[in-house]
Structure formats: C-alpha cells, structure tokens
Design brief:
6% strand; five-stranded mixed sheet; globular; 557 residues
C-alpha cells in the first residue's frame, strides 16, 4: 500500500527518469534516430554535386529528360552503342521516381531550383532515414533479440559512411530500406513460421523483385541471407517468394518496353556486360584489398572486427562454455554464426578474390556494409552478455551463489553492467566512424559546379554557357534547367590541347556565361586574365572554389 502511494507521489519528471533508466537502450535508439534523421536532411540538402557520374546520369538527368525533354542520355540508356549489351542496360524505373517528383513540383508551381530540387533532396534524406527502422526490424527478427535490433538501428543512424552516400541518388543505396524490410518480412515467414499474407507478397514484389531488377547486385545480400537461413521445411514459402519476386521483373520489363520500344529484360544486358563479357574494367580496376583498405581500415573498424572474430571463435566452441552461455536465448549463438557466414559470402563475392583486379566502388558495398554493421551490433550484445555471465560464473566458483534462484537474481541485478558495456562500445564504434570521416572526404564532389549551373540556369539573360569541366563530373541539365540555352563542356586539366579551343569560344559573343572551377586553372593560371581581356567579367564566386563570369552583349574582339 505504501509502495503504491510512493509511486503516486512521484513527479512526472521522476517517472520520466525512471522510464529512461529502465529503457536506456530503447530511449537511446529514439534519440539517435532523431539525430540521424536531422543529419540526413542536412547532408541531402548540401550534397548536390557528383561523387560519381551515375549519381546524376542514371537518375536525375534521365528524369529531367522524361519530364522536360532535355537531358544527357548516358550510354546505358541508349538503344544502340558500340557494345550491344551496354545499351539498354539500365531500367527507367529508378529515374521515373524522380520524374514523378519533378511533375509534382510543376503541379504545385514550385520554382525548379529552390523548390523541386530541394524537395527531391529532402525525399532522399527521408528515404535514407527509413533504413534505420528497417535494419532494426531485420536485426531483431534475425537474432531474436530486441537489443540487437536497437543497437543496429543506433549504428545505422549515425554511421557516417552510410549517411554520406545514401542521401545521394544512387540506386545502390536508395533501395536499401525496402531491401532490408523485405528481408525482415521473409525471415518472419521462414524462421518464425509466419503465414505469407497479401501484404507480404506485395513487399516481396517490390523489395526482391523490382529492387533486383533495377540493381541486380543487391541480390547478393538476398542470396547470402537465404543460404544461411535455408529451411527445407519451408520450401513452399521459398517458391512463393521467388514467384512473386519474378512479378517485379515482369513489371519492370513492361515499364522499360514503353521507353525502349521493345520487350527486354534490363538485368540480362547488365549481367552480360559485367559478368559474361567482363566489360566492367572499362571504368577502372581496383585491387582485391580495395574494400578492406577503404572501409575496414579507413573507417577504423579493425578493432571491432577483431572482437567479432574472437566472439565467433567462442561461439563455435560453445559446447565448452555451456555454463557461461546459460543465459542465452535459443538460437542466439547459432544465428550469430549464420550472420558471420552471410557476411563472408557477401564480402567474398564483392571483393572478387578470384581475380587479380576488378572494378570496385564504395557504393557497391553499402548493402554488405549494412549487414556487417548488424554483425557488429550482434557482437557487442554478445560481448556484453559474455562479461555479465563471466561475473556470475566467477561468483559461483567462489561459492557466493548456491541456489538457482539466487543466480537468477544476480543476473537480473547485473543487467546494468551489460547495458553499460553495450553503451560504451556503441560510443567507441560511433566515434571511430565519425573520426574517420575527414580522412576520406571527397574533396572534388563538384557541388560548386552544380551550384554554378543552378545559378546560371536561373538567370533570364542566358545564351549559351561554357563549363570548364567534363560533362560527367557535373549535373548537366539537371541543375542548369534552361531549355533555351546549350552547355559547352571543355576540360583543359585532362587535355591541355583544348586550351586553344576554349580561347576561341571566349573570343566569341555567342556565349555569355562561363563557369570556372579553380582546380581546372592549374595548367593555365593566366586563363582568367585572358577571359577579362576578351570582355568577360566575374559576377559570382561559388563556395570559394568556382567563379561565374559573364560577357555583356557586343563585346567580342
């Protein structure tokens, strides 16, 4: 009676603090989700440049072409080119997502530069944030442990590498939220014996079918998880998932038929070009250790990997540690080993150790990195339980715990140690990720050139525009968006012979805007003086790295 009265006498603040202390991990997850959401919106609004040409030319530029009739058609979207399998090797489904947003912007009478493009960036930030709850659900279902789901969600919230790439329009990262949500629903069906609902079938069509139709290599994660969770007793469910995933491919092929003019399956062209014909080396080669050096080492993840390996060895030797692991739930340790194997499968496929060098990019590995982050979360929870149980075992050996009831009581009271270990290791991993960011920031993301294109495209007096850069290192029509003018791209840094051609254009008065990034001037430091002598005047500086020059009418020499 007195205890109830004391509970009622507690202020709201005290009750709130009691709730936080008893649900520290859950409250931390919600806090980090909010932080991660804000970080993604900020990053998305800032990241208007190009980390890689595909960021624009397989998404926004094609969308701009579909909606406004003007945009550069990348080789993968052409009906014909020198390599047949390279033509029609990308689906219109992905750029149509952005085309829809552009049409919404037009319908709402938004200004293209300050409204529509901003809306698209916010959309990318929100989509990136959806990966947080998706991974939480996946990790929760896979491990059958809610704490691991929460830790995974916390990691995804603030993992810098994930944030910086997933807020850009890459198909590699855009579909991660729906992919891991689909894996979560599949695990419920396969491992938790849940009946497949109509909702599940729709999820499988989108998350496995449409996703792998657009980005075939995302199927590697599906393959790895399927291998380690295969249950022959659920063969009927596997068949249904495959069949309905195939419907996603049929839908994608029908959409592409409208734009390509013939029924064809885009992934077949992609697979032929990249795997059968091995043409991906056109875009550069990287050594086998590329991902190890650029992710595990550069992101300071080696210590976490070492702890994971140690815990995996202990898990495989579990029969010798039955007392220590008495607290573990059924399947806890076996699922940990399965997740380790899934990671090995995925990393092996993407690293291509059977070849001396292959084409590799960081964005290719983002789905596998996400899976590894879940593995690290599992490791931390495993490690915390291990320490907790070791303390209990030590007390038993000292004869301080004799009855089973007392052992249970001490385990409950020791939960705070487990939580403390978890929070400490979360902090260490997060600090490692954030501290590594400045060491690998992409210095030439060409945000400044795109900002220059957007500025010039917003002017009313634009004729033709000279851009001192290579076309695929800018946003092109996506950011320029001026149907009455053309863009002329010239790079002298990559070919000094173009300097005379550039000077010829500068002497003419048919073009009245000139976008000049400073990093192009290294081979021609006197270029701006020449431009000034031919009537050009500077009108704006973008981010301290790029200048906009203007040529008034009738000043040609």
């Amino acid at each position: 009676m007195k205890e109830n009265q004391r509970s009622k006498d507690k202020t709201f603040g005290n009750r709130f603090l009691d709730y936080i202390s008893s649900n520290l991990l859950l409250c931390s997850y919600y806090l980090f989700f909010l932080i991660g959401f804000i970080l993604r919106i900020i990053a998305a609004l800032y990241a208007s440049g190009v980390l890689h040409p595909d960021e624009i030319y397989q998404s926004l530029e094609i969308a701009h072409l579909v909606v406004y009739g003007k945009g550069y058609i990348a080789p993968e979207f052409r009906l014909e080119n020198n390599t047949h399998s390279y033509a029609m090797s990308r689906s219109y489904l992905f750029p149509l997502i952005f085309a829809t947003l552009m049409r919404i912007g037009d319908f709402l009478n938004m200004d293209y530069h300050t409204g529509t493009l901003v809306m698209i960036r916010i959309f990318l930030g929100v989509n990136s944030a959806l990966l947080i709850p998706s991974v939480r659900k996946f990790a929760d279902a896979f491990s059958k442990n809610k704490d691991i789901g929460l830790i995974s969600g916390i990691f995804i919230s603030v993992w810098f590498r994930i944030i910086e790439i997933s807020v850009r329009p890459f198909s590699n990262t855009f579909f991660l939220p729906i992919l891991f949500y689909g894996l979560y629903r599949a695990i419920l069906v396969i491992q938790h014996n849940k009946k497949i609902s109509n909702y599940d079938l729709i999820v499988f069509i989108v998350s496995f079918g449409i996703t792998t139709y657009i980005r075939t290599d995302l199927g590697v994660i599906i393959f790895a998880i399927t291998i380690v969770t295969f249950n022959r007793d659920r063969l009927k469910e596997y068949i249904m998932i495959i069949i309905f995933s195939f419907f996603g491919w049929i839908y994608g092929a029908n959409v592409d038929m409208k734009y390509y003019g013939e029924f064809m399956v885009v992934p077949i062209h992609w697979f032929t070009f990249n795997i059968i014909e091995s043409n991906s080396d056109w875009f550069g080669l990287s050594p086998v250790n590329f991902y190890i050096s650029n992710i595990l080492i550069l992101d300071n993840l080696i210590p976490m990997l070492i702890i994971s390996v140690i815990m995996s060895i202990i898990t495989l030797s579990r029969k010798f540690f039955k007392t220590i692991f008495a607290m573990f739930e059924d399947g806890f340790s076996s699922n940990y080993v399965k997740l380790a194997i899934a990671n090995i499968i995925a990393w092996t496929i993407f690293s291509s150790p059977w070849g001396a060098e292959t084409h590799k990019e960081i964005r290719f590995i983002m789905a596998t990195l996400t899976l590894t982050i879940v593995f690290f979360a599992y490791t931390i929870q495993f490690f915390a339980i291990f320490i907790n149980e070791y303390i209990v075992l030590h007390k038993i050996k000292q004869g301080k715990l004799l009855r089973e009831e007392k052992i249970i009581d001490i385990r409950i009271s020791m939960r705070w140690i487990q939580t403390l270990v978890v929070m400490f290791m979360i902090a260490i991993v997060i600090l490692s990720s954030v501290s590594a960011a400045p060491n690998r920031y992409h210095k030439e993301s060409f945000d400044d050139v795109n900002a220059g294109l957007a500025y010039v495209g917003s002017q009313e007096d634009v004729k033709d525009v000279i851009v001192l850069s290579i076309w695929f290192l800018t946003g092109g029509e996506t950011y320029f968006h001026n149907n009455g003018s053309d863009l002329i791209y010239i790079s002298i840094r990559y070919d000094i012979n173009n300097l005379n051609i550039l000077k010829y254009y500068l002497r003419q008065d048919t073009r009245n805007y000139f976008i000049v990034p400073y990093y192009e001037l290294g081979v021609a430091p006197d270029l701006l003086e020449y431009a000034q002598s031919t009537g050009w005047i500077p009108v704006k500086i973008i981010e301290g790295r790029t200048e906009i020059w203007f040529k008034p009418a009738q000043t040609s020499i």
